[in-house]
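In keeping with the milestone schedule agreed at the kick-off meeting, the structural modelling team has produced records for the first pair of proteins. Each record is given below as a sequence line and a structure-token line. The laboratory manager (R.T.) confirmed that both were archived under the project's standard naming scheme.
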Amino acid sequence: MIDFWLAAGLLLLIALSFLLIPVLRERRAQREEDRTALNVALYEERVAELHSQQQEGVLSVEQMDSGRAEAARELLADTEGSSEVRSSRLGKPLPLLAALLVPILGLGLYLHFGASDKVELTREFAQAPQSMEEMTQRLERAVAAQPDSAEGLYFLGRTYMAQERSAEAAKIFERTVALAGRQPELLGQWAQAQYFADNKQWSDKVQGLTDEALKADPNEVTSLGLLGIAAFEGGRFQEAIDYWKRLQAQLPPDDNSRAALQGGIDRASEKLLASGGKVVTEPVVKAKGALIKVRVDLAPELKAKVQPGDSVFIFARATQGPPAPLAAKRLTVADLPATVELGDADAMMPQLKLSNFPEVQLVARVSRAGQPTAGEWVGRSQPLASSTTAAQQLTIDSPDQ
């Protein structure tokens, strides 16, 4: 940030020079005018003295003419090189007042319309946070600087949930839905936050959100998990088992969440059997893992405009879904061209898998600041099925807007 202010100060000094230099030139011209006036006055005094001496008979007419000619030559010599003084229509006070107001006005306009907060955030995001609190503060400032960023709001809501700040998370997810649309994943996150904000009290609002999410996507994982929790807390153990098994079927075999879910299913089964009930096992459809192979390269005209250490983020996101990436890899410009695989194992969050969304878009972004959400250059693919097996080609060729 210091580099930025030094550059701004240098530009300000250049701007002030255009105002102050004419003022200094005018002062020099004024001094020349005063000196010329003094020389003229001395000349006139000398001529008057010669006339007086000629009238008193001290000087002859020829001597007086010779003396006057000598005085004239001295006047010309003294005034030689002086230029005509140009009068300024602005006067002296106005340029000086402008020189004072320019830096004040410029600073005020920049603080009001500028983007110093975004510049500082970019520098911060280039460095890894030292704690969850620091990450939360960064996200809060990012949302304040870009209130219309659904992606920033989504990550802030997830962070609030991780800190058990469910009431704040519910409000954030509500804003995210208003910006990004009523996507199943966002509705599920909103319902979950609202449920915990209400002290685990099921409400018509939470029911409506989960119903809408599962109607759009019967395998929406957050809603399935939440309905299982509510059913277990309400003593409806068979419903809890059914919801959790449906959720478990959407997870890949190596997902760490499967063990926790199985523990919940086992506890629900024990309680159901202890109450005299019988566990009904229904067949579930197992999820198929998605894997997309993509070759990423730079357009030839951009190779001279990037640096080898610039970060390259390659990710897939749902065309109709949450703004968060479903799978991501990070390289550098020096690694390009490169072929990477994006699959369920690369998910940013366990609930967001490629296989959970029918259509995705591939994106590759070059970011000198190391920020995945904004950079200098980007390449985007056409929408394609998440089940695509053919290798894809992605070229980074456009300015990042």
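The second protein of the pair:
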Amino acid sequence: MPRWSADNIPWDQFDARKLHPDHLALVKAASLTESNAAHYTVYLRNVFKGDAQLTGLLGEWQLEEEQHGRMLGRYAELADATFHYAEAFQAFKDGYVIPVDVETSVRGSRVGELQARCIVETGTSSFYTAMAEATEEPVLRAICRRIAGDEFRHYRMFLDGVRQYQEMERVPLWSRLKVTIGRVREADDDELAFAFHCGNSREQTYDHARSNRAYAQAAYRLYRRHHTEKVVGMIFKASGLNSRGWLSRLAARWAWSKLQDRSAAA
């Protein structure tokens, strides 16, 4: 069961004057992607069929992710009376469908699948951490801090799985790096762009490039250098690399430079 609830959020402290419009737009999109955990749970349970311990943990993970979506959706409705979370989520589910009828991971191994989940949780934990530090609105800050804590725990859960399955599968480093690069590149796929569209501009025809630019413009400006350093370290650790070595430091500098370039271009 989730470790916190709506009762832990100071809803009565909401201050619209302190809410940046870009932050609200991101919240609307995030409420939809978080709420979609049930589909991923079906997929992951198929991939890890026979592992009762992990599939049990996935059930808990799903409940926490769905709670994130509900809390963010409630917040978005509080901040914007014209936003209807349930309708936006239905539009997102109808338009973004992932194949779940599988028996093996699309990453090529169970290690690869768990590693990919680590990278996703790296992204979400850093996003909510950056949002909590960037926003001046007290309710949004409280929600993001709670969610960030959950996402860090989820990362550790999947990382434990990576280490357990690596003992059995012995996936070579080059293959793990291929998964890392592939999953990082997927940040520009349809999921985030379409969620941003459904949360903020459903009256328009969906255009991936336009929605992707709008999401990037709002999201990338949240981040500071220490966030990118944390992200790179977590990704390196999940990939089987030294998270504190010279290569990690070099990659963190490159990532920060790249992020600044994309933020300016967006």
